[in-house]
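Hi Prof. W.,

I finally got the Nucleoid-associated protein C900_04380 prediction working! I wasn't sure whether to trim anything, so I left the full sequence exactly as given:
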Amino acid sequence: MFDMMKMMGKMKEVQAKIKEAQENLVHIKVTGESGAGMVKATVNGKKELVSLEIDQDLVKPDDKEMLQDLVIAAVNKAMQEVEVLAKEELKKSTEGMLPNIPGLDLGGLV
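And this is what came out:
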């Protein structure tokens, strides 16, 4: 017979693991580059921009539009990569905790 108390206890354990995993996302860092490394943007697993490096040669008034495009490209690249790592981290921390339920996607928790 289905043990509801055991299931509730398991869910609390899963919630604690998910919360811990979400808190640890700040330690995951990914750097995206654009313009052959002239612009580097680093984001953490919480999708926060934590560092931005711009090559000195790019800081010219005439190049403002190009610089903006390169920054956008670097940040977007880092965001894409960190999302993959964050999902892997969340999956690792809850591995074996939840039954394999088709359609249950915890990716939205990141």
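The longest helix spans residues 64-94. Does that look reasonable to you?

Thanks,
D.
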